[in-house]
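Support reply, case 0932

Customer input (verbatim):
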Amino acid sequence: MLVLSRGVYDDVVEHARTGSPEEVCGILGGEFGADESHAGASYRTDNAADAPRTEYAIDPEEQFAVMDDVEDAGRDVVGFYHSHPQGPPRPSQTDRARATWEGYTYVIVSLDGAHPYVGAWRWTGDAFSQEVVAVR
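Our regenerated output:
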């Protein structure tokens, strides 16, 4: 399960909306757990992908600098988020091919409907396993 604070939920949805039609991305900080993680902070990053309308990439230098910021704030890295401005509301083939952080959560904000959909999946090393998302 992934628990998002209301502020994190609002921030990642707003980031997705303002970044559309390109995909946006970032890192989630909070308390990491094997079965349940809590994200109390979101850290926006630049989308460094060659085709940002259909994929995302976080520059490795920026990623590690932000991860250091998360840890310096006394938080754990919980996972990562990105948007799908045109759907689908689940990981794409590209997302699966590029997932590398085993055990961490990947959040997708899909804007392909009347309301945003925020879903979460943990990367097992072989596949994504969908998680329940709660907002508190």
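We compared this against your earlier run and they match. Two observations from our side: The first strand starts at residue 2 and ends at 4. The chain has a mean pLDDT of 96. Please reopen the case if you see a mismatch on your end.
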